[in-house]
Write a structure and sequence with these properties.
With about 575 residues, the protein is of the alpha/beta class. Helix 10 (about 235-250) crosses helix 13 (about 275-290) and helix 12 crosses helix 13. It is elongated, with a radius of gyration of 29 Å.
């Protein structure tokens, strides 16, 4: 251990000396040979040299404390957990992140120019016999995590894009990064050009705050150069689904707090789990952003809070559905692709509507999961067709076809007190919707019809088909739309809520849901032109389209006007 300690201490001392000697204006041209004039002045204006970083490998906290003292550094121990470096090490060495105890320390160092700087010390604890010695030897040799860092003075998106563009122009390439919730900061890593003379091959832009939108573009550039890493991340998607589903199933979010950290032992007692195993799950969820890890335990984040039961916007039911029946059926996706048969039916022996209807608990879970995407509905009550119906002298009637548990219809009625509602659904769903709408105070303004699509009530002013057509093939869609057209008065509007496939190949949730519908329901998502043809076949016409959250769309449909001959 003496040799190891001396080696890490020597490396750390060299890093301290570098931080003391350098300043922003002198360091940037070393990293970007040829940078001068206005571009150099612009970079100096918008970012400042803040620290140099090193990864060291103490066997425990006592050894780390001695190493810092030998280098004249003072820091509070233990340090904050490192999300970014721990994940990079896990991917690089193909080890579970939970096995890598990496902390961050930032002891102060005074620069020669009087500026306040730090040495960023990443410490991977390597206890004797832990099996991590090979990682330590490799990292000491290759110095993957050693870098110099610049802090952005004004974290404006335009400034960030400009800095990244300048770095790229002088040979820097994206090399990862991440958001650290423990300190609310975003890091952008770059590989320096081959001509750099600073002795460091990597550099970092540190930006206070959450800038994951810009980080996503940056990481895309990195992953394009790391195909194996990209594929490995994709292949672990099933782990993510099960981790979130287990988190929800055990009701861990309900036992956590968004303001203070809760210890693993306390959480384990509350939810009936083994503390060590729960800690491993929570560390993985911290990497996903569902929780945050601190000195005293784990704290729930805003995304993680959506997995609580009974809270507004809860997505717990969706997690249980995607981690349960739909997870099982996706294992037979290959069967669907080979044969054309629906995977869900192949696995469970019947279609998912019949399967869920026979099990009251599963039926309720399915209806709750449908309501979990309710953010898609937020703007819908302000649609001009609904506003016009509400402003009619006698008010208006909205017919929600296959309206589930009444989530959408309740929002419409709450937004427009002069509207009345009719909900058409299967027997068990009608009772759930009746209870929900009565509890919301809309019971006297709503009628309930038990039946199928052939039973669409006539005489409404606005009809709604929300996430219905994607369940069915084209012929069944035409049949449903013809039932709607027969029931609709000439003045009536039909609002169809669906995810619409992009026609230009751009990224959309609709593309993912297209696979989901094929695998689990036998339906599909469609492009707007495809929907237009289905409407026309039923004597209807698409007259408008507006975007909704979660990549949704509302398609505005009316009865087609007869064309005059000659």
């Amino acid at each position: 251990m003496i040799t190891t300690l001396s080696g890490d201490t020597s490396r750390l001392l060299a890093t301290v000396d570098f931080v003391k000697e350098q300043d922003t204006a002198a360091l940037l041209p070393l990293l970007f040979p040829g940078l001068d004039g206005p571009e150099l002045r612009s970079l100096v204006e918008h970012c400042r040299f803040s620290h140099a970083a090193l990864l060291v490998f103490p066997s425990d906290e006592t050894e780390l404390r001695a190493m810092l003292a030998d280098c004249g550094l003072v820091a509070d121990l233990p340090g904050r957990p490192s999300v970014v470096v721990r994940e990079r090490l896990a991917v690089r060495h193909r080890r579970p992140a939970a096995e890598l105890d990496v902390g961050i320390l930032r002891p102060d160092v005074a620069g020669a120019d009087g500026e306040h700087r730090t040495v960023e010390v990443f410490a991977l604890t390597v206890p004797p016999g832990s099996g991590l010695e090979e990682i330590a030897a490799c990292e000491r040799e290759r110095q993957h995590e050693a870098h110099v860092a610049f802090e952005v003075v004004a974290p404006d998106p335009l400034v960030l894009r400009g800095l990244a563009s300048t770095f790229a122009r002088y040979g820097a390439v994206p090399d990862g990064g991440g958001y650290n919730p423990h300190e609310n900061g975003t890091v952008f890593y770059f590989g320096a050009s081959a001509e750099a003379k600073a002795g460091y091959r990597r550099l970092e832009l540190y930006v206070p705050g959450d800038h994951r939108d810009l980080l996503a573009d940056h990481l895309d550039g990195h992953r394009a150069r790391q195909p194996a890493e990209t594929l490995l991340r994709l292949l672990t998607g099933a782990w993510t689904t099960q981790a979130l589903a287990t988190f929800a199933q055990l009701r861990v979010p309900d036992a956590m707090d968004g303001e203070r950290a809760v210890g693993v032992e306390e959480l384990a007692r509350t939810v009936g789990a083994r503390p060590g195993k729960l800690a491993t799950l929570l560390r993985y969820l911290a990497m996903l952003g569902a929780v945050e890890e601190g000195h005293d335990g784990f704290r729930l984040t805003e995304p993680g809070a959506l997995l609580r039961d009974g809270v507004p916007g809860s997505m717990r039911a969706l997690a249980l559905m995607y981690g349960g029946p739909f997870y099982e059926s996706f294992a037979a996706l290959g069967h669907t692709v080979r044969t054309g048969e629906v995977a869900f039916e192949h696995v469970f022996g019947e279609n998912h509507f019949d399967h869920f209807a026979r099990d009251p608990e599963l039926a309720e879970l399915f209806d709750q999961s449908m309501a979990a995407g309710s953010a898609m509905f937020d703007p819908l009550p302000t649609h001009p067709a609904l506003t016009a119906a509400a402003e009619a002298p006698a008010g208006g009637t909205v017919v929600d076809i296959a309206g589930g548990n009444g989530e959408l219809l309740g929002r419409v009625l709450a937004a427009h007190p002069r509207l009345h509602g009719v909900l058409l659904e299967r027997p068990h769903a009608v009772e759930a919707a009746r209870l929900r709408l009565e509890e919301a105070g809309h019971g006297t303004r709503c009628a309930f019809v038990t039946g199928d699509f052939a039973d669409v009530p006539a005489g409404g002013d606005v009809y709604v088909l929300s996430r219905v057509l994607h369940d069915w093939d084209d012929e069944r869609c035409r049949e449903i739309l013809r039932h709607c057209a027969r029931a609709m008065p000439e003045h009536a509007d039909l609002l169809v809520v669906e995810r619409v496939l992009p026609s230009d190949g751009s990224v959309s949730l609709a593309t993912a849901w297209d696979v989901h519908m094929m695998c689990n329901v036998g339906g599909r998502e469609r492009q707007a032109g495809h929907y237009g043809r289905l409407f026309a076949d039923a004597g209807l016409a698409l007259v408008g389209r507006a975007p909704l959250p979660l990549d949704g769309n509302v398609l505005h449909v009316r009865k087609a006007r007869p064309t005059s001959a000659g």
